[in-house]
Design brief:
Blueprint lengths: L1 E2 L18 E5 L11 E5 L44 H17 L1 H21 L3 E2 L12 E4 L5 H10 L5 E3 L2 E4 L7 H10 L2
Parallel strand pairs: 1-2
Antiparallel strand pairs: 2-3, 4-5, 5-7, 6-7
Helix pairs in contact: 2-4
């Protein structure tokens, strides 16, 4: 089981090549979709080995036959959909996934990596410590940094005041620029840091 929320939409992922049996991700992060709607993948040959967490009217095979008392599960991934779907969220997530596919994850990944690298280099130049060393193998879209003499919450508020979103996480500033952020905007963020 892979929790792909921190990379799906920003980095290519082949479930067959990676031998993933099940994968889940919320749609609101790198997938650019609405909150409260996500994706679940379960390899077909694993469906019978993973029981639904909840049971409801729409995860049974004959869900559209309201008088049926047959509780056999649907033979497909619909067995994990136990009730009415978040229709608006589903349409929003579909639109965001179509957009990502149109842009191309193979183009998004290097852009995200380059922006993360640029931010890491910039904050390093201002005396900030990185949560971990960035390399070509481990660098990702999320960059966490701190400086002993600067409160992360103050930095986050300062950035928010000028329209830049970041989050304070246990004394660290956590930033995650997506592909649509320009290198100049990264430089602006670095310039705004105390």
């Amino acid at each position: 089981m892979v929790d792909a929320i921190q990379g799906l939409g920003a980095f290519p992922l082949d479930v067959n090549e990676c031998q993933i049996d099940a994968l889940a991700a919320d749609g609101h992060k790198w997938l650019l979709g609405p909150e409260g709607c996500g994706v679940l993948y379960v390899r077909k040959d694993r469906l019978d080995s993973i029981d639904p967490a909840e049971f409801g009217w729409s995860n049974v095979a004959r869900y559209n036959e309201y008088s049926s008392e047959d509780l056999a599960l649907r033979p497909d991934a619909g067995r994990y959909e136990c009730g009415t779907l978040n229709t608006i969220g589903c349409f929003g997530l579909r639109a965001s996934i179509e957009f990502i596919l149109e842009v191309g994850v193979e183009r998004i990944a290097p852009a995200v990596q380059a922006l993360g690298d640029r931010l890491a280099q910039g904050v390093g130049g201002k005396g900030y410590e990185l949560a971990c060393e960035r390399t070509a193998e481990n660098g990702a879209g999320i960059v966490s940094f701190r400086r002993a003499d600067v409160d992360a919450r103050v930095v986050v508020r300062r950035l928010m005041d000028v329209g830049v979103l970041a989050a304070p996480r246990r004394g660290w500033v956590r930033a995650a620029p997506h592909f649509y952020v320009s290198p100049e905007e990264i430089d602006r963020v670095v310039d705004l840091l105390p």
